[in-house]
Amino acid sequence: MSTSSLFVTLAVLIAVAYVLGRGRSMALADHSQRGFRNLNSLPFYYGMLTALWCGIPSLLLVALWLMLDGNAIDQLLIAQLPGEVAALSHAELGLVLNNIKNLALGNMVGANPEPYMVEAASTLTALQRSSQMAMTVAAISVAMVLSIIAWLRINPQQKARLQVETAFKVILLACASLAILTTIGIVFSVIFESLQFFKTVPVSDFLFGLQWSPQMAIRADQVGSSGAFGVIPLFVGTLLISLIAMIVAVPAGLMSAIYLSEYASSRVRSMVKPALEVLAGIPTVVYGFFAALTVAPFVRDSGVWAFEFLGLPMQISSESALAAGLVMGIMIIPFVSSLSDDVITAVPQSMRDGSLGLGATKSETIKQVVIPAALPGIVGGILLAVSRAIGETMIVVMAAGLAANLTANPLDTVTTVTVQIVTLLVGDQEFDSPKTLSAFALGLVLFVVTLALNYVALHVVRKYREQYE
Amino acid sequence: MTELNAVAQATIAQAVETPAAAAASSASYETVGQPFLDSGAKMSMRDVDVFYGDKQAIFNVGLDIGQNEVLAMIGPSGCGKSTFLRCLNRMNDTIDICRVTGQLQLEGQNIYDPKLDVVPLRARVGMVFQKPNPFPKSIYDNVAYGPRIHGLVSRRAELDEVVETSLRKASLWEEVKDRLHAPGTGLSGGQQQRLCIARTIAVSPEVILMDEPCSALDPIATAKIEELIAELSENFTIAIVTHSMQQAARVSHRTAYFHLGKLIEVNDTEKVFTNPDHELTEAYITGRFG
Amino acid sequence: MNKPSSHDTGANVENTMSTIDKVNRNLAKRYRKEKTFRAMGIASIAFGLLCLVVLFTDIIGKGHSAFLQTYIKLHVDLSTEMLYIDDPSDPHQIAAADYQGALKEALKERFPEVTDRRQKRNLYGIVSNGAGFQLRQMVEENPALLNTQLDVWVAADDDYDTYYKSRGEGEAYTGRFNEEQISWIEALIADGAVKKRFNTTFFTAGDSREPEQAGIRGAMMGSLFTLLVTLALSFPIGVAAAVYLEEYAPKNRFTDFIEVNINNLAAVPSIIFGLLGLAIFINFMEMPRSVPLVGGFVLTLMTLPTIIISSRAAIQAVPPSIREAAMGIGASKMQVILHHVLPLALPGMLTGTIIGMAQALGETAPLLMIGMVAFIVDIPGGITDPATALPVQIFLWADSPERAFVERTSAAIMVLLGFLILMNTLAVWLRKRLERRW
Questions:
Q1: Which of B261, C61, C113, C249: disulfide with B80, CB 3.0–4.6 Å?
Q2: Is A198 inside any structural domain?
């Protein structure tokens, strides 16, 4: 039975279990004069209890099975392979397995697959089929046996409501804990691969190296000429682009927020605010397209024109950090503006009154009272914006370059951490080459940096809010 | 902004919903006692109406405030006394929906003249608020704020002097002279309010408006502020809104009684508290409502 | 009690006079600063709005032409000899016939002067590679067309399409054209044999290397399936998590830890979620690459924090008095939640979910990581078929060198933005319509 029809079958079984459980409790109630009052709980809860026993264990079983059967089948398959093949290195073994899987799917693998491969492919098909069969049988029998037991145990004294409510609470808790699981998943996925990477490239070379060229020799006889994995140029590139973005976004966003919250009439605010928020809703890939096809050529052309005019012997790259940073800045304007808007409106009106009552002008009040009062919140918001700029991917992938130049010149091409992650991981990759693994090390760095920024920023903002609550 | 609007909303609600309001608002009325001074009026108001949106909060109020006088405004909550006070230096401008009509004059100059600039007006008519609202700056910077923005002093030494004098006048100097650069928000509530008073007098205004300056303070701090008001009245004209009749009796020379947006009675403080002319005033003084 | 001091101190008057003079002296300067500050605010807003306008006009300016496609009228001879068909009743033969040859013949007849072999190849390139399929479809639908001669409108090749579209506005795009190529298309235009029609291919076809045959249907279906998976998972899980945190969670370290995690995940870069998907779902669990199912998983994890945060706000907005009223008549906690809290909080939760879905629809980076970036021609039919998504398609086309892909990329962006605007409008409408004020 295919997995999807198994799910449908289970759903039907759950519904049947509910109806039967409910029916049994009602039948029990009918036998006494007190009717439903004879039951500890409403029939609904007896039905739910039976349905839960039917559904939850079986669904968990299926989920676990689907998660683990791939690896288990691989192990069984490897055990069947001829000795000399099974003894191959991890990477080559993976390649062989891949070929066998393709063969099993009926795809062409080279001209003449070796006989052991053909044999293994048929074993694989058989294994997969029996695994699927075993899963179906196991899941359906678990569902049926447990719901029958639950059904038989229904009696008027059973505290069905309490049990169902406990189950409800546990399910809710499990959903809430998914956030923790996700974090753990992220940490594990980046740390595990990074550790493997750091076996080949020392941490110090990675963190303090000044050169980044991950193109490794693929052939075995070239192992000596490995690539360079110094992450400093990527950091510098990321920071340069983020800095340009912040130079655009912070003044524009902050001043917009100030104008909207302190000067604008409510009519203007109700029209301008949503319009600015449209900027925040535009997908980053659209900004990337805009940066690469419109802004970058414009920046280059106007740069060429300006340098010619000034007679400077300078060059401006068509993938300049300036273009990517500018567009990223535009993207971040609404982010800065809405965060600042929140903290500025949180400054109590009494403080503005105090200043206005002394005869200060509006701008004096804003500059000398409101902004200093809101400063911690604004700083927190800016930190969040920086974290966003550092983690932004599509704009830089489309508009910044790939060349890892160690430069602070905004007219030059630089590359960023996210660009490299995408470049290294898009397309086919073998999981054993340092080139692929280095992407996870970059991911680790990115995660740690943004996590730290977010943590500090959220902490600052929360402390700020508490101050005025 | 929202906080203020909430205040405005509450005022509107009270002005409209109280049953007595409907009865009182329909008929025209006359303020009893002596609202007007023959001479020496620092500020004089005539026929003042205030509206929040289309709801009227102040009805046809006429009143003079004399030079170096302490005028107390009392009345049940929502009676419009704070709203009226805020008209006197146009703090009501910060509420979008608020509209003021009538003549309000400071030494013969129309306060609500559209051509009048509120900045120098507020430099002449300062305000102390209900809740102490020191800026998140040092004590020194709080007091120096006004002189700095107005450019009243040109040298540091002069500024130091202004700060010291103002803090002394607000009888705060002895308590804070060793920590002038500590944040003003770290002071106690009573000290904060005196700091706000010092901040106001550092600009040397002619009139000081006080909006229930002691309502957030404990009795000891209140006593200090009241003492201070008495001292300040030698140099400044003061209009104070208060909830506490005792306070009005202690600090003021004249008392104005507001009721549901109307100015019912104005008389010498002694007279108001011993032998009021109007029955509403008497009812309020004797605690039949409040 | 102090009575008003009747003697005005002269010094006091002088003092205040000088104060107000000092104030007035500086006023002009202060108002200049005030004006400058205000102008800076207006300039910032104008800058933001200008960016918005430039972005939209740029995209629409580049993309609007992609909704039209240039067609060329050819006089085609559909005789069986020409198509190499022996038996006109055999559907196999009709399907396998040489329609491209018939088109080439028609072009040769129209431009008999072209004899050089290279030039001939250029000439045949004037119509799309897909034109043959178009002819086949016509004949399959109506076999009576065999052995007739008729005028057919066939799609032009992308370069000629671009040339024709840019002809009206100043200098036309000539790209790699030589003199002859321009003269042919001009001759056809003079004949009235070139016109623009609505580009249905763009909405009905999957991806293609040939711009005039490329469409966004495949990417749209991919996005749809991905979003369905995301919605089916993230809405129930997000609501459940929010209910737990608001209604059940005790004040302890574990709850704090959950909250810290949610808040941090909301700000983790999306590409990190892609790494998670690659390492856990694809590498560890061996799920297939490039499928909407895995894309949906990754986007679920990414949008969950958004949904949880907005659902919690919606639950907080339900006044405690409602809960107390229900509990007061003996409802259990679960009944209070299911009967009262959830129905009242639902509009707010839906609004948050739609906004989360809009975010997921525009997301590209994590999908690149899990391989939804492959070149896929077939239109996916389910959540386990290889697919791309609309934003990924935009990314892929933006990288293509053909000039005709620029307008198609912009058009795809217009479609994407259209969906996003629709979703956000729906969210706003829902909030206005259903949210009640307490």
A1: B261
A2: no
